[in-house]
Specification:
about 30% strand
C-alpha cells in the first residue's frame, strides 16, 4: 500500500494508504485480485509517528488474533 496523506490532528497523526496498482510485477499481481483498497490509521504514540511517509509503499500484514 502507498501512503496517500499524513496529517496531524492535535497530537494524533492521521495516515491514509491506498492499494498500489502498478510500478512492479508484484503490485500488478496484487491489483489483479484487490484493485481497490483504502486503509486509515490514527497514531497517538509520538514514538510511532513519522514512520509512514507520504508517497512511500508499505506492506500491510493482517494476521488473525
Amino acid at each position: 500500500m502507498k501512503v496517500q496523506d499524513v496529517t496531524m490532528n492535535g497530537t494524533t497523526e492521521q495516515v491514509t494508504l491506498y492499494a498500489v496498482t502498478g510500478g512492479s510485477e508484484e503490485n500488478k499481481s496484487f491489483a489483479k485480485y484487490t484493485p481497490c483498497a483504502t486503509f486509515q490509521i490514527s497514531i497517538d504514540n509520538p514514538a510511532a509517528q513519522g514512520f509512514l511517509v507520504k508517497d512511500k509503499e508499505f506492506y500491510i500484514d493482517i494476521t488473525a488474533a
